[in-house]
Every structure is written in structure tokens, then in C-alpha cells.
Design a protein that fits this description.
Blueprint (H helix, E strand, L loop, with lengths): L4 H13 L4 H10 L7 H10 L5 H16 L3 H10 L4 H9 L3 H18 L5 H14 L4 H12 L1
Helix pairs in contact: 4-5, 4-6, 5-6, 7-8, 7-9, 8-9
């Protein structure tokens, strides 16, 4: 049984619009009412045609979340895990983020938050900044180190 050309066309357009991961394509296949027995055939077609690559997706996701949303490595990792990206691909994507860029971004975010909460006492500022930046996905140790460096 060959693949439905209408479904293939929709999937190729879906993947060509922006990088997609396997989980997103599986969700799309379900919405298109494709029988689950045919999922692997469609995924194989998309991979061989170059439309689907989880490694490429992981790198684009990490880069985009870091550059556009200023997410830290922990939050990026959690986002990729939620999309069921394998650990080795997550590691590869995170290794592409330069540690100097991470430090610079963390420092800029810290400065912005210091301005935002300048009316608070130092302990209250520290508490809010640490909470805010750890929620963004930066490590507690890195945030505290940046705080200490900034307050010297």
C-alpha cells in the first residue's frame, strides 16, 4: 500500500514551514486521521526526503529559545525533553551554545532585573532575581555567581 499523496503533501508543507520534530509530526498525523500503522512509513519518507531531522530541530529549538526568549540551558533541556528528543541530541544542541554567550546573556538579564526591582531592598532584589532567572532556565550556582560579581 503506497502513501496517500495528499497526506504527504500536507506533511511536507508542515515540515517545510519550520523545523519540526518527530513528536510534532506524529501529532499532525493523528490530526490528519492517518492510521497509526502507517505512521512509520510517513516518518521514513519525511526523513529520507530531508524534511524531518530531530538533531537539526534540537539545534534550531535551542538556538531560537536562547536568542529570542533568553531561555537558559535547563529550560531548553526541559522543552526538548517534553518533545521527546533523545538525550544525545539535546546534549549536542546545548553544546552549540557558547558559555561566554550564556554568561553575557545572564549578566544582561540580571542588569535588567536589577533596574526593574531597584525600589526593593538588596535581599528582596536578590530573592526575586534568583527566582526569575532560575525560572528562565539558568542554574542556581550561575545566577548566584553573577549576582555576587554584579554586587562587588
Amino acid at each position: 500500500m503506497s502513501l496517500d499523496p495528499v497526506v504527504i503533501e500536507k506533511l511536507e508543507a508542515y515540515c517545510a514551514y519550520q523545523e519540526r520534530c518527530t513528536q510534532q509530526v506524529l501529532d499532525k498525523l493523528s490530526k490528519l486521521d492517518v492510521p497509526s500503522a502507517r505512521f512509520d512509513d510517513h516518518l521514513h519518507h519525511l526523513r529520507t526526503a530531508g524534511f524531518l531531522d530531530d538533531g537539526r530541530f534540537a539545534k534550531a529549538y535551542a538556538s531560537g529559545r536562547f536568542n529570542l526568549k533568553s531561555w537558559g540551558p535547563y529550560r531548553i533541556r526541559q522543552g526538548l525533553k517534553a518533545l521527546r528528543i533523545p538525550d544525545h541530541l539535546i546534549q549536542g544542541a546545548l553544546s552549540e551554545l557558547e558559555s561566554t554567550e550564556l554568561e553575557e546573556r545572564l549578566t544582561r538579564l540580571l542588569e535588567r532585573k536589577m533596574e526593574q526591582w531597584s525600589h526593593l531592598s538588596k535581599p528582596a532584589q536578590r530573592q526575586r532575581i534568583v527566582r526569575s532567572l532560575t525560572q528562565k532556565g539558568y542554574g542556581m550556582r550561575e545566577v548566584l555567581d553573577a549576582w555576587e560579581a554584579f554586587c562587588r
